[in-house]
Structure formats: structure tokens, C-alpha cells
Amino acid sequence: MTKYWLRGGYSCVVFIVFIVSAELASRLDDWVHWKLPIFSNPTLQSELLIWNGHGWQGKPNGRFKQFSLNEFGFRSRPIRKRADPGTIRIAILGSSETFGQRESAGKEYPAQLSSMLSNQTNPRYEVINAALPGMTVKSMINYWDNWISIFEPHYVFIYPATHLYLGDTVVRSTGQTDNALDPKQAIPFESRFYSRLRNNLPDSYKKWRNRQIIKSLIANKPETWYIKSLPEDRLTYLIQDLQLLINNIQSDGRKPILLTHTISSSTPYRIEDLNYLEAIRPFIPRSTPESLLAFEQEANRRILRLGHHCHIPVLNIAQTMNGRRELFVDLVHFNDQGAEVLALIIKDWLLTYK
Amino acid sequence: MLFNSFVFLLAFLPITYLIFWALRSASSRYIWLTITGYVFYGYWDARFCLLMAFSTLVSYFAGLGLLYFHTNVHRRLCLIIPISVDLLLLGFFKYTNFILQSVRDLTGYLGQSITTPMYNIILPVGISFYTFHTISYIVDCYRGTIRPTRNLFEFSAYVSLFSQLVAGPIVRFRQIEQDLESLGIADRTRWFSKGVAYFIYGLAEKVIVADTLAVYVDACLTQYHNLSMPGAWITMIGYSCQLYFDFSGYSNMAIGLGLLFGLRIPINFNSPYKALDPSDFWRRWHISLSSCLRDYLYIPLGGNRAGKLATYQNLMLTMLIGGIWHGANWTFIIWGAYHGCLLVLYRKYGIYWDRLPHVMRQIIFYALIVIGWVFFRASDLNMAIHLLSVMFTFVSGNLVHEASFYLMLLGAIIWSMVGPNAQDTFKDYKWKPRHAFIFASAFGVSIAIIAGGRLSPFLYFQF
Fold first, then answer.
1. Alpha helix segments (H runs only) across B327-357
2. In chain A, what residues touch B449 (CB-CB under 8 Å)?
3. Do the Cβ atoms of A200 and B445 come within 8 Å?
4. What are the distances in angstroms from CA B51 to CA A144, A195, B125, B456?
5. Do A20 and B444 lie within an 8 Å CB cutoff?
């Protein structure tokens, strides 16, 4: 009996040595490759975002894994506060799709646009990636008013993450801010080794896990909780926020350009689109795939109408890119090729726009 | 399927191991090893399993022919046919486009340009290795060194053994014949701890050292035009360590896997950067290949028995073929010729060289190896020439600025030039309980790095 206890104890100690070594190695590896601190628990939000009292903005010289921000908190090359004479400055406001959370480093569409325009000499162009992950249009208003406007961009492209308006942290018309992260909330400990292992789980397990999360989120919810028809209130919030942002940009003497929001699914969705539609569900549990697609379609119609009403250009990229799975890694995020396509559309518009 | 991947470590290996030892007879174990070998190979590209099966069957039946035929004519046919088949397969898949491109370039240079077609030929992974296995088998059978096996599955288990299938070591049938014969009565625990030790040691070499160096070395070589003189040297020294630990790591993992299944696979590296001269180097680097080239090419050509000039000629020819074997590119041929020159020069002036101090010889010779690796690594002659010119002229440019890279590089150089290798470490290996903590630690570190997503294939897979 004692022998079995000793063996059991010995095996436990060996296992603990394995886990501790793996955890230390994960942290050391992160420090070597990404300069992440070894003994703290950095996240993308804690390392790249700061609360400026009004809203979120990029942390100056913030760095997290492959993401690095310049001294002004933008995911762009170093810039001056004022554009050089003879240079047209472009700022792009958006969420994680614009920030470039899923593309290879340097392949997010603002960076690709910058490369495409680097040969232009008369005038020269400078692109600022002013997007931040999770940013809604409401957050962009604060961001513009308190920070981006200082840099006096000539053109301000607005790529709104319309699907965020189906989430539970959507803005209210009273103007409460929406962002999920409480600045005072402590970041809980998470094992870096466990995070690495999680990324290597087979797709079938990830899909199963996703279904379990959705089940827990929608458990015991009444029928009225679901968004089954077009939510007029949320569409109104989106357009009101966009209108306010456009007004603020124009009143600062800058030129806003809207983009419609594009997704990898077609409408109606195909069988192969269901994976991506289900994968996003934990973020917008109330919305079914059908209501999400209907919302996207209607939101884009209203964006086009808003542009017409405000006499500002609207690039209807949804018309070009919707349903083209080969350009996306999930429902909304581009892959390198998708980012290139979008960058080309913007570049072509810029060079022909008078 | 890579040895350092989760699908191998958590699925393929445990299942293969458990079922292997659950089977009781040698025949059933041969069949199981054959099946798992083809599953392992098919994971890369199932189409090429047929190619390997064809090569295996041709050599197997040729071996049977050598058993039954006694006349010279028939025996020669049993030798020539399988070797021709293997060399034709290797030649077609590996060298067709290279030959056509070379003809086009040469005729263009002579002013009589010929348009040659280029074919979209996929190089089957491991073809250079398993064709060597079958060729060495048939030559040994012809010479009477071994008796051909009548058991098809024993032979196919030898050819398709997953541990050395895609990147060596090149194992001759005679080297594991005894272990194969006694597979039915093998003791699972006999070499278990040594096998685990070798495997984890090799995994650590590959994942911790080679893959970490690769991140910086590959980044530098992608921008090789911008390297400074010290940057070029440091990058190539980094590459020399990356290549050694990558290949040595793979070979040690293969040895460990063999031991887990009751098979003793011969060592492939013996601290090559401790070598003091070219001959010493080729007794330490890729030992399985160099010994095959010696036994099946250099010695049949006459070796060193026909005078000095013939010896030099044989050395050059052997090294040229060794270079060509590595890949269809002029850079590999030049690399082979370079080492052939070093061997010839050592033959001629070795007595003077041997008088130099030990440390001096080791350092100078290491620098000569690094120069050779420039051709080995370069994608074309232009890149090789540019790198060499930068290494020998004072140019400014880029240099790696990461302290972690220099720390790792320093550790790798010290380990490879002075430290023990796997054989030294596990020479008279006896399991002790505290070893479990060392292995658990090394394994944990390796798994953490693998899970970080910087998985890279073994460099010798391309050959």
C-alpha cells in the first residue's frame, strides 16, 4: 500500500515539474519573442489600451505580441503630430477588423494601403491606423474629439463594426459608454501554457466548446429575449452615432468617408457559412444567424443612405466582398488577401477622387 | 506529421506503441510497423505511398531472386534492375527540372538557346532516404553481406519504419537485422528509458535550440542583401548551429523512437563541430550518409588503393555525388565540390595541418565549415556569392540586436564545440528516479514552445 502511495506521490511531483517547467518556458518564450513581462498577466487590452478619462485610446508605444503601437498609440509607422507639407494624411477609424487582429504582421489593410501609396510623390500619402479592437462608433466619437482630431487628417475613413450593435454592451441613446473593460478591474491570472494549449485544440473541440458556451448564454431565456426581427432601436443607435461622428469630423474641417461593413457570409447563408455564424454567436447571443444577416444588410443600406444625406462618399465594400470566404478568417476579420483587396479599393478611390 | 507536433506526440505515437507491444508475434509486429509507416508517410501525401510500395516490392523480389538464382547473369540483373528503378525514380522526381533548366541555361550561355519544358513535379518527401535503404539492401544481398529476407513484411517494416523514413538516419538492413529477427521476443522495458531519454533530448535540441535560432537566422537571410560583414558571419554561424541541432535533434528522436520499439538505430552525429580536419568531420557529420557513400561509392571506385591521383579523383567524385544527393541545385554541387577539395587538400598537406595546436585547428576548420554552409543554405548562386563577398569585405549593414539570440547562439556554439552529445550523455545509461524530473522539465519546455505555434519542419525533409 505504501508503495502505491509513494508511486502516486512521485508521479504527482513529476507532473508538477512538467507543468511548472512548461509554464515558465511559456512566459520566458513570450518575453524573448514578444517582450511580454514574465511575471504579470498581460492581455491585449491591458498592454495596448489606456483610459483617458473620456474613453479608450491606444497606449503610446504599447506592445503586445505581434502588435506594436507608435508613440501616439496608433498601429502605424512613427509619425509627427502634423503632416509634412505636401502630404495627405489619412486616418482610418474602426475596430479589430481595421486594427488587423487576424492578419500577419504588416498585412492589415491600413498598412497595405500605406505600402501601396508609398510610391506616390505628388502628393505623398500618410496612413494612420487609428482603429482599436472592440471599438464601437460611440467610442470613436470620444476618440475623435479627444485625440485623433489633434493630428488633423485630411481624410477620415470610418469602417464601423456594425455587428457590435447587436451585443449586450451596445450604446444607449443616453450616451453611456459601452466598452466592456472596467478600467479598475483587476486582470485575473491565466496560465500562459494553458492559453497556448487551447490554441492547439482541434477544430471539432472548439466547435463543441462554442456550442456549450452558446447553450449556457441562452439557457432559460424567454422568446422575447432573442432578436428575431430587425431591431429598429439598435439600427437607430448606429446611425445616430455615425451621424454625430460625421458632424464632429466635418466641424473640425476634415473629410469623412464611410465604408459599408462586409462579412464572409452571403445572404441567405450557405451551409459552409454556419461555422462562422455560430463562432460569433457568443459575442451576440441574442441574435440568430438570420437576424444577424438581416441586420447587416439593413445597416449597410442605412449607411449608404446616410452618406447620401450628408453628401459624403461611401465605399460600398460589402457589395464587392460579401460572401467571399476566401478573403476572411471568420465572419468579419480579413485574412492577408482580404486586407489587400480592401486596401486596393481604398487606394483606387483615393487616386481617382477629386 | 512532424515528431514535434501534437498529432504525433498525443495520437500517433501512443497508439502505435500500445498496439505494437500488445501484439505478440514478430510477423504481426512487422505488419503493424508497415501499416503505421504508411500511415505516417501518407499523412504528408497519400499518393506517394504507392511509389514507396513499388520501390519496396521491386527490391524485395530482387532480393528473392538473389536467393534463388546462382548464375552471374541473373544475379547481376537482380542487382541492376532495382538500383536502376530506384535511381530513375529519384532522378525523375528530384532532378528533371534541374537538368532541363541547366540545359536551357547552358545553351543560352553558348548562344544557342533551347526552350525546354518545365514540369510541375512534386518531390516526394523522404525519397532520397528510402531509395538509399532499398539500394543498400540489394547491394548487401548481392555481395553476400546479408541474406535476403523471405518475409515481405519484415522487409517493408524496415523500409517504411516511420522513425527514419523521411529524414534518416540511413539505416542499412544489416544494422537492424538482428533486432528485427528478434522482434517477437523483444522486451518492452529493456530500452524504454533510454528511448525516452534520447527522444526528449532530441526534441529539446530541435525545439529549444534549432527552432529558436531559426527565427532570427531565417529573418536575417530573408534580408541578406542588407547584412553587414559581422552580421553575415553571425547569421551563418547561427545557421550552422541551427542545422546541426535540427538534424541531430531529429536523428536522436529517431534513435529514441527505434529504442521504444526494440530497434537500435545507429547514431548519425558525433559532435561534428569538434572535428579537427575534413576526414574527422565526415566521420562525425551525417555518419549514415557518409558511410554509405564510402561503402557503396568510394571503395568500389577504388578508394585510396590506386595511387594518389586516383584517390583524389575518387574523393572528389564521391563528394560531388554527396552534394547532388542533397538537392537539385548548383549550390549543393559546389558545396560537395568544396568539401571534396578540403578532403583532397587534407590528404596532400595533412601532415602540416596536424602540427597546428588542437584549438586552432578546431576553430579554423569550423570557420571553413561555416563557409561551406553558405552554399548549402543559399537558394541560388547569386545569394551564395553575395553572402561570401559580404563575409570577406568590410561593409556596413544590419546585425541582430536581440540579446536572447546571442545568448542562445553562444550556448549552442559551446554545446556543439565543447559539450557532450547524446551518445556521451547516455553512454552507460541506467535509469534513476531523479531522471524523471529532468525529462519532465525538458519535455514541458519543449511542449510549451511547440504549443507557441512556431512549428517548423526539419531542414533535412527537403532532401
1. 330-353
2. 25, 29
3. no
4. 64, 41, 11, 26
5. yes
**What mean pLDDT comes out for the span B200-227?**
91
Instruction: Tell me the three state secondary structure of residue B166.
Output: coil
In chain B, % of residues over pLDDT 90: 71
Give me the active site residues of B, please.
Answer: 326
| Cell numbers that stand for B390 in this block | 559580404
Residue type, B325: W
Main-chain dihedrals φ then ψ at residue A41, nearest 5 degrees: -120, 70
Q: Are B297 and B308 in contact (CB under 8 A)?
A: no
3-state secondary structure chain A: CHHHHHHHHHHHHHHHHHHHHHHHHHHHHHHHHHCCCCCCCCCHHHHHEEECCCCEEECCCCEECCEECCCCCCCCCCCCCCCCCCEEEEEEECCHHHHCCCCCCCCCHHHHHHHHHCCCCCCEEEEEECCCCCCCHHHHHHHHHHCHHHHCCCEEEECCCHHHHHCCCCCCCCCCCCCCCCCCCCCCCCCHHHHHHHHCCCHHHHHHHHHHHHHHHHCCCCHHHCECCCCHHHHHHHHHHHHHHHHHHHHCCCEEEEECCCCCCCCCCCHHHHHHHHHCHHHCCCECHHHHHHHHHHHHHHHHHHHHHHCCCEECHHHHHCCCHHHECCCCCECHHHHHHHHHHHHHHHHHCC
Write out pLDDT tens, residues B149-162. Answer: 999 999 999 999 99
Start-to-end C-alpha separation, chain A: 87
pLDDT by 10-residue block (mean), chain A, 354 residues: 87 95 92 83 85 85 89 93 93 95 92 94 92 90 93 96 82 43 56 89 86 89 86 92 96 96 94 91 89 95 96 95 95 96 96 80
Q: Which of B436, B443, B448 sits opposite A29 (nearest CB)?
A: B448
Q: How far is B177 from B355, CA to CA, in rounded Å? A: 42
Q: Rounded to 5 degrees, what are φ and ψ at A126?
A: -135, 130
DSSP annotation of B265: P
**Is A231 within 8 Å of A287 (Cβ atoms)?**
no
Q: ipTM of the assembly?
A: 0.81
Q: Strand, helix or coil at B398?
A: strand
Q: Given A14, A23, A25, which is nearest B449 (Cβ)?
A: A25
- What is the predicted pLDDT for the residue at B247? 93
Pairs of residues, one from chain A and one from chain B, whose beta carbons lie less than 8 Å apart? 57
